[in-house]
Design goal:
The complex is a heterodimer of chains A (112) and B (116). Chain A has 112 residues and is mainly β. Helices cover 0% and strands 49% of the residues of chain A. Chain A contains no helices and 11 strands. In chain A, the strands form 2 sheets. In chain A, strands 2, 4, 5, 6, 9, 10 and 11 form a 7-stranded mixed sheet that branches. In chain A, strands 1-3-8-7 form a 4-stranded antiparallel sheet, with no helix packed on it. In chain A, a hairpin with a 6-residue loop joins β7 and β8. Chain B is mainly beta and 116 residues long. Chain B is built from no helices and 11 strands. Chain B is globular. In chain B, strands 2, 4, 5, 9, 10 and 11 form a 6-stranded mixed sheet that branches. In chain B, β7 and β8 form a beta hairpin. Classes of the chains: A mainly beta (112), B mainly beta (116). At the A-B interface, β4, β5 and β10 of A face β5 and β10 of B.
């Protein structure tokens, strides 16, 4: 596709459920980043991949959060046993190789 | 880890005047400093960036300056127009010579309001 694609765009889930958020980066982009953005705040780094290798996961809030990019393209961010404090916009971004980072539209997660 | 502070949180200027937003960073290893513009309900979009081997970069009405010694960088917008109204974020990261870059650390954002 022409840009970074994320799905679902909106997700409402009950507390305690697991959710999986998908990111399809721009074709050929080596690096893929996950960020979380609360209303009125800047994006907060979560984790990133070069190809299929997870380079840094220091931003993941706790062990309920995990991410994978098994074939070096599509990535999934999984949140287990969701809590209300997980409610936020989750943004994926990709980059050719450490150059300009292009953000996706994001996935709005609401935990009720 | 890196910490980026951004000021002011809100900036209101008259149309046609200049706007300046300032950021400081903590990690002296950071060498890449982009600025993003985010309109309401939309994704952040890169407007300009600077690397640590230069002190200033300009693109039409937008310029960025970097002081590595003081660890601060600034965004300057001249001849502001109504469409400049948005939230602006500064960010910092380490970009590697062989390619690749660490995740960006963002400031908290500046809400720029252009008064007609």
């Amino acid at each position: 596709g022409a840009g970074v694609s994320q799905s679902p765009r909106y997700k409402v889930t009950k507390r305690g459920q697991d959710v999986a958020l998908r990111c399809d980066p721009i074709s050929g982009h080596v690096s893929l980043y996950w960020y979380r953005q609360a209303l009125g705040q800047g994006p907060e780094f979560l984790t990133y991949f070069n190809y299929e290798a997870q380079q840094d996961k220091s931003g993941l809030p706790n062990d309920r959060f995990s991410a994978e990019r098994p074939e070096g393209s599509i990535s999934t961010l999984t949140i287990q046993r969701t809590e209300q404090r997980d409610s936020a916009m989750y943004r994926c971004a990709s980059s050719p190789r450490g150059n300009t980072i292009y953000f996706g539209e994001g996935s709005w997660l609401t935990v009720v | 880890g890196e910490n980026v502070e951004q000021h002011p949180s809100t900036l209101s200027v008259q149309e046609g005047d200049s706007a300046v937003i300032k950021c400081t960073y903590s990690d002296s290893a950071s060498n890449y400093f982009p600025w993003y513009k985010q309109e309401l309900g939309k994704r952040p979009q890169l407007i300009i960036d600077i690397r640590s081997n230069v002190g200033e970069k300009k693109d039409q009405r937008i310029a960025v300056t970097l002081n590595k010694t003081a660890k601060h960088f600034s965004l300057h917008i001249t001849e502001t127009q109504p469409e400049d109204s948005a939230v602006y974020f500064c960010a910092a990261s380490i970009m590697y010579s062989g390619g690749g870059a660490d995740g960006l650390t963002f400031g908290k954002g500046t809400h720029l309001i252009i008064q007609p």
